[in-house]
Fold this protein.
Amino acid sequence: MTENIHPDDHVLLSTLAKRSDLSVPRPQTHFLDFPDEASAQRLLAAVSAEWTPVGVTRKGQVWRAAVARADKPTNRTTIPVARTYLTGLAESVGGRYFGWEATTDVGLRHHDDPADEFVTIEQLNENEAAAINQLLPALNQMGLTLTPENLANFARENRARWLELNDADGGLTRENAEFLIGTAAGEQIGRATGLRWIVIVQGEDSEIALADAERGLIRPYAMAADWWDDPESEDVADFVRAAILLVTTGGN
């Protein structure tokens, strides 16, 4: 089963392993999408003997059912089994498997402290993935995913104009600029290293990042935010080159 592990599962488990002991039981939640609420509810009823039904929510054009358990480890043995089982059940009632999330040891270790928030590792949702995919053709056309120097030069040349628009547009341009720079940097790193986009969630805060195969966690949007606040403190080209080197050499 481990030889056929799904690429998304490999990404999430590799990232989870950085913070957690994958041999111990931990809360895990799986998500399944359906064309209507009745189908989603049928799935919840079908798995209730082994899984805890979390509920059904509307997500755009689909209904998403969530099921959870906390009595098993989340690792390269259990996750493929769960994915195969839940995928089969979902497809039997017209649905599809969407993905999963799990609590890290940070959340487990301090779960009695109300001030501490669980940390989960998730795959991108449809909106997050769509936002990146919609931007990529423009980034590719402008050459911003080709070299670190192309991206850094573009950022430097346009920063003054973005700042002017930022003052006029109430801050929207800062967010757009950070997303543009972060996406381009992340794509360069991902293409060079094989890292994939994931989401780190803690409480109400979430961050899109890159991770894969026990080789580290790279945060291109955090870099873009630091660069916006102080362009002298974060060289975009240096960040991309350093991230690729760190991942490909293991920091050596």
In short: Residues 109-117 have pLDDT under 50 and may be disordered. The longest helix spans residues 172-193.
